[in-house]
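Could you help me review a protein record that somebody else here produced? Here is the record exactly as it was handed to me:
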Amino acid sequence: MLYISDETIDQWIKEDVPYIDLTTLTLGIGGQKGKIRFTAREYTVLSGVEEVLRIFTKLGVMPIRSLPSGSAVNKGDVFIEAEGLAASLHMAWKLSMNILEYSSGIATRTKRMVDKVQSVNPEMTVLATRKSFPGTKDLSIKAIIAGGAFPHRLGLSETILIFKQHMVFLGDINNLAQVIQENKAHACEKKIIVEVETIEEARLLIKAGVSGLQFDKIPANDLKLIVAQIRGIDPKITLLGAGGINGDNIEEYAHTGIDAVVTTAMYFGKPSDIGVTMEKC
């Protein structure tokens, strides 16, 4: 279960309802009792359900039934039903729908990629990058987990991941190899992953004692050959493939022998199509 604070939930509500629901107020319907239903209009892997239920509670809407995040639903399936006063239902409506549609869109794309990878290699992992849109990380992380993937790293304070942009300030790969020994002493409990482009760089860094190697934008056929060579040098080192991997080519990378694919693709695409209906009780 991902922790999202009450302050965050309150902020979401306040952003959509800064003061009042002017439409419902002027129509004079706020005191009437009603029921709200959320229905899938297509195959969807749900995410954000628990946050919607917390929004309901804060606004005085009582859930009747719901399916948890991670559930797969088909067209026509009702997955949330709740009741309350019309004023509360209308305050909860669009905010809840937005959370569900965007989060479930990510979860559904993630699940499709995970299924493709595991059909080739059940032990391979799909990792989502930290390239979610700023301000949406809570819901994005929950969505990729609901879809069966894991976060690559949650922020700069986690795994030591060295890119070529870092190399600009180190000089060259040989200098990095020397720095790694000192780096390991400073952060002995942390893994060190280095992004590399050639087998020669990989050999040098394996000798220096890195925990893993990440290969960026290398075609799947070429990566397969590189992986085979590296496994001959160090069969236990962690190998990651990244850069340009998406739902269309992820199966090709699943055949390369890497331990995990790193991708941003699940964050980009259409939201899930979810219908909302209300009825007067």
Q: What stands out?
A: The longest helix spans residues 86-120. The CA atoms of residues 212 and 238 lie 4 Å apart. The longest strand covers residues 33-40.
